[in-house]
Amino acid sequence: MLNIDNLHASINEREILKGLSLHVKPGEVHAIMGPNGAGKSTLGNILSGRDGYEVTAGNVSFEGDDLLALEPEERAAAGVFLAFQYPVEIPGVNNTYFLRSALNAQRKARGEEELDSMQFLKLVRQKLAVLHLDDRLLHRGVNEGFSGGEKKRNEIFQLAVLEPKLAILDETDSGLDIDALKSVADGVNALRSPDRAFIVITHYQRLLDYIKPDVVHVLADGRIVQSGGPELALQLEAQGYAWIKDRVAPET
Ligand code: ADP
Ligand code: MG
Ligand code: MG
């Protein structure tokens, strides 16, 4: 589904990703862990199509297409969930209305019929039930005054409604309480399916107490330096990231 090969990318001429490769098949959940500053968020941002990054080498294909050649909206329509597109606050714009517009824009781009408000409401109710969420966030402005935990719950709700093939979630490390982590985990678990893949970026192992990944990768200094099963996350929890330093010695 997703093939990243030898990706090199820079911010302001400084190389952050230094030959990163990652292969994700449908149905899989991949966790990406690693020390602060390793380039985890950079990877997520580049896959999402965020501005400010220069890809200097390598390629990324999604279902056979060159992902990096697509605009962010085209990536979304192709089925890549762009968590970053929605954290902006849009005071006064109803969250439900906003989400219906996003879904319909994607449907239209795929040549599918748009949903009217009744059809959308039905979909929303189904998804709320699956996720065991209440409808409090729906009637507020988009992310308006949302706490970190509410933003995460909303992100999971968006994910459920948009039904992407590949969801990339960056847990951005700090500020998430255990309830927020659990709702992310419950959401991911409820939305796992044989044709949907997840990339879950996290600094801490504790999220993986609730989401059992198929593959755990350690990203350090812009590269995947180790991959393994869920036990790798436990090893990191026990040993920290210090042992990684041996693996990122500069090539000569
Ligand atoms: P992680 O998510 O693994 O903690 P990031 O991808 O956020 O790491 O950052 C990787 C490196 O890129 C860090 O050294 C960080 O300081 C740098 N970086 C990230 N964003 C920017 C930016 N907008 N401008 C300059 N440097 C940046
Ligand atoms: Mg960080
Ligand atoms: Mg980060």
Describe this structure as you would to a colleague.
The structure is a single chain. The chain has 252 residues and is of the alpha/beta class. It has a single domain, classed as P-loop containing nucleotide triphosphate hydrolases (Rossmann fold, 3-Layer(aba) Sandwich), CATH 3.40.50. It is 34% helix and 27% strand. It has helices spanning 40-48, 72-78, 95-109, 117-131, 148-162, 178-191, 230-239, and strands at 2-11, 14-24, 29-33, 54-62, 65-66, 80-82, 90-94, 141-142, 166-170, 197-201, 215-220, 223-228. The strands form 3 sheets. Strands 6-9-10-3-11-12 form a 6-stranded mixed beta sheet, sandwiched between helices. The protein has a 4-stranded antiparallel beta sheet with strand order 2-1-4-5, with helices on one face. It has a two-stranded antiparallel ribbon with strand order 7-8. β11 (215-220) and β12 form a beta hairpin. The protein is globular and about 55 Å long. The model has no long low-confidence stretch (mean pLDDT 88). The structure holds adenosine-5'-diphosphate and magnesium ion (MG) (2 copies). Residues 40-41, 172-173 line the site of one magnesium ion.
**Structural class by helix and strand composition:** alpha/beta
What's the CATH H-level homologous superfamily? P-loop containing nucleotide triphosphate hydrolases
Largest sheet: 6 strands, mixed
Strand order of the largest sheet: 6-9-10-3-11-12
Q: How many helical elements?
A: 7
CATH class annotation = Alpha Beta
Q: Bound small molecules, which ones?
A: adenosine-5'-diphosphate, magnesium ion
Overall geometric form: globular
Q: Unreliable segments (pLDDT under 50, ≥5 consecutive)? A: none
Organism: Luteimonas chenhongjianii
Keywords: ATP-binding, Nucleotide-binding
Family: Belongs to the ABC transporter superfamily. Ycf16 family.
InterPro entries: AAA+_ATPase, ABC_transporter-like_ATP-bd, FeS-cluster_ATPase_SufC, P-loop_NTPase
